[in-house]
Amino acid sequence: MKWSEISIHTTNEAIEPISNILHEAGASGVVIEDPFELSKEREDRFGEIYQLNPDDYPEEGAIVKAYLPVNSFLGETVDAIKDSINNLILYNIDIGLNKVTISEVNEEEWATAWKKYYNPVKISEKFTIVPTWEEYTPVSSDELIIELDPGMAFGTGTHPTTVMCIQALEKSVKAGDEVIDVGTGSGVLSIAAAMLGAGHIRAYDLDEVAVTQARLNAKLNKVNSKIDIAQNNLLDGVEDNSADLIVANILAEVILRFTSDAAKVIKPGGCFIASGIIQQKKEQVKDALLCAGFEIGETMMMEDWVAIIARKK
User: Fold this and answer.
1) Which phi and psi (to 5°) does residue 136 adopt?
2) Contact, 105 vs 19, CB < 8 A?
3) pLDDT bucket at 240, cuts 50 / 70 / 90
4) How far is CA 177 from CA 45, 235, 253, 290, in A?
5) Which of 19, 81, 163, 198 has an alpha carbon 20 to 30 Å from 154's alpha carbon atom?
6) How far apart are CA 46 and CA 126, in angstroms?
7) Quick one: fold of 2-115?
8) pLDDT per residue over 45-72, tens digit each?
9) Mean pLDDT in residue range 226-234
10) Domain residue spans in the chain?
C-alpha cells in the first residue's frame, strides 16, 4: 500500500495542536523533529540515555510529519489539514513558516521508520515507559514498567505533557480511587493510575482507533480488569459526583470547554489534573478552573508546557 507523508515546518508552540489536527484527519502515525531536543539540558536523576542525530532535525522551528493513505480523497484531506492549521492563528498560536510538503512512501518504510524515535525512558521516580519491541531490564525492584505500543493512537507516553500527568498522578492517586481519563489516547495515563492503586478507571476517547489501542495496551500491562475504555465525547453522560480524580491531557482549548462538567463529576475534595496546556494559555485555564469551583493546588512546568493540579472545594 502507498502512503503519503505530509510534513509541516512550524514552531514548537504549534507542535501539539498540529499533531492533533493530523490525528483527527486520519493520520496513521506522527513524527516530531524538534531541534530543541539537541540542545536542551536534561536531568539525569532517572538515568536516561539519549543519542540524537542533528541531521534528523531542522535548523530552526520544528517539523511535524504524518502519514495518510494514498486514495481519491487525499487532496481534499490535505486541503482540510492546511485550513485547520491556518485557523490556529485565531487562537493566537504561532504557526511559523507553515511550509507543507507532500511525498510518497511505501507501507514497509512507514511502519518501522517512526520507531527509531521511541526508546525506553524513565519519566519519574516510579515509572519507566518501554516500547513493546524493546528489551529492558528494570534498574530497581520497585520500578513500575509500562509497556506501550502507540499503534495509530496519539501518544507514546514520553511527551512533556504526559510525563507531567504521570508525575501528578503519583502525587494524587489514592488507593481505591475512582478515576476518569478524558482523551485517553494510547491509554498510558489509565495504566499508570491502575498501577498506582486506583480502584477503577473509566477511560474515554472520541477516536475509536485510540479506544482499540488503549484496550490492547491495558491488556498488555495486565490492568485491563481495572479499566473500562469507551468511545465518548469528553464527559458527556457521565454521572455527577462519580469520580475522585479526573486526568485530561488534551489541548487547553478543549479543557476550557468542560471545566464546569468536570466540577460536577468530581466529588467534593476530588482532584482534576489538566495538561496539554501551552504557557500562553496557562492563566486562561486557571481562571476557568477557579470559576468552576476549583482551587489551584500546584502548577507544573516542563519546557513550554504546563500541567495544573486543582481540587474541587
Assistant:
1) -150, 135
2) no
3) very high
4) 29, 18, 27, 23
5) 198
6) 9
7) Alpha-Beta Plaits (3.30.70)
8) 444 434 444 455 556 788 899 888 888 7
9) 96
10) 2-115, 155-312
